[in-house]
């Protein structure tokens, strides 16, 4: 009886969480198809705001800028973060490993406003002009710890004897890394890349500090326009971004399921050989 009561409360709690999280999004999407100019009253079904968005060259350029920043920063951060995870894993002394993990996690626990202000001061001191490069470097910096935290668990799950067995069979360090270690890390690398891409795509606080005149990203632009009044073009843009996010999530789960099936097949084959 107690278990049934607890299960009922859990379902109610989950339903409330879903309503709180997704109701505002569906409300925003709903009014993006309104012929009106505000969200006070729904007119009739119309795609006028999507047509306006399609002809807004400034917004299209901002979307392209945001996508380029997200793709480049997440890719570079994934490479650096994966190498960082390998370095941390190879540290023999536990205390030194904990120090490296603590340094890695500083950007994760620090307030975004503090991080953004720090980057602004740093770029000003070294004389770097605020714009594309400053935003890219900032996004790479705060994405690296995310990748490290996603990759390390996969490294810890891997049996240390696999690399030793590959070396005993004559594999070079590069062959051991590319054929044994990296395949075992692939799910964590994919998760790290998608997490870094998502964080870069919707980051506002850090980006707000390091953008300069003539360059901005989607989150900063939406904030600037929202301060001038709600425009349903923002609803249309937010709907497109939301659908893109759903597509990315679906792509991630598809890749993860394929990687899982491949790992299961390899496990079955190894068992047959034994």
Write up this protein.
By secondary structure, the protein is an all-alpha fold. It has one domain: Orthogonal Bundle (MetI-like fold). It is built from twelve helices and no strands. It has helices at 2-31, 48-55, 57-90, 94-104, 106-109, 112-126, 132-157, 161-168, 173-202, 205-210, 218-227, 232-273. Helix 2 (48-55) crosses helix 12 (232-273). The longest helix is centred in the last third of the chain and has 42 residues, at 232-273. The relative contact order is 0.12. The model has no long low-confidence stretch (mean pLDDT 80).
Distance between the termini: 48 Å
Strand content: under 5%
**Helices and strands: which structural class?**
mainly alpha
Helicity level: over 70%
* Number of domain units: 1
**Rg to the nearest angstrom?**
23 Å
| Biggest sheet descriptor | none
Q: Would you identify the regions where 5 or more consecutive residues have pLDDT less than 50?
A: none
Average pLDDT number:
80
Strand elements, count: 0
And the CATH topology? Answer: MetI-like fold
CATH top-level class = Mainly Alpha
CATH architecture: Orthogonal Bundle
N-to-C series of helices and strands: HHHHHHHHHHHH
Q: Give the count of helical stretches.
A: 12
**CATH superfamily, please?**
MetI-like
- The geometry reads as globular
């Amino acid at each position: 009886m107690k278990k049934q009561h607890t299960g009922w409360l859990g379902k109610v709690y989950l339903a409330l969480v879903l309503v709180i999280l997704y109701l505002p999004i569906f409300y925003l999407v709903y009014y993006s198809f309104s012929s009106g100019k505000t969200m006070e009253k729904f007119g009739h079904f119309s795609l006028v705001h999507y047509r306006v968005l399609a002809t807004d060259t400034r917004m299209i350029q901002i979307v392209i800028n945001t996508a380029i920043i997200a793709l480049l920063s997440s890719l570079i951060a994934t490479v650096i973060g994966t190498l960082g995870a390998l370095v941390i894993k190879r540290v023999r002394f536990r205390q030194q490993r904990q120090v490296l993990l603590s340094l890695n996690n500083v950007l994760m626990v620090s307030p975004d406003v503090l991080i953004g202000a720090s980057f602004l001061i740093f770029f000003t001191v070294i004389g770097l002009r605020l714009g594309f490069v400053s935003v890219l470097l900032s996004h790479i910096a705060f994405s690296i710890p995310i990748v490290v935290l996603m990759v390390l668990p996969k490294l810890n799950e891997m049996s240390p004897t696999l690399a030793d067995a590959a070396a005993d069979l004559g594999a070079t360090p590069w062959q051991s890394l590319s054929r044994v270690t990296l395949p075992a890390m692939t799910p964590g690398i994919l998760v790290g890349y998608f997490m870094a891409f998502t964080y870069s795509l919707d980051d506002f606080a850090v980006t707000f500090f390091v953008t300069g005149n003539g360059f901005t990203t989607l989150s900063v632009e939406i904030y600037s326009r929202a301060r001038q009044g709600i425009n349903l073009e923002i609803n249309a843009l937010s709907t497109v971004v939301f659908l893109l996010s759903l597509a990315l999530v679906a792509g991630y789960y598809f890749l993860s399921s394929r990687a899982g099936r491949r790992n299961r097949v390899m496990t079955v084959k190894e068992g047959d050989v034994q």
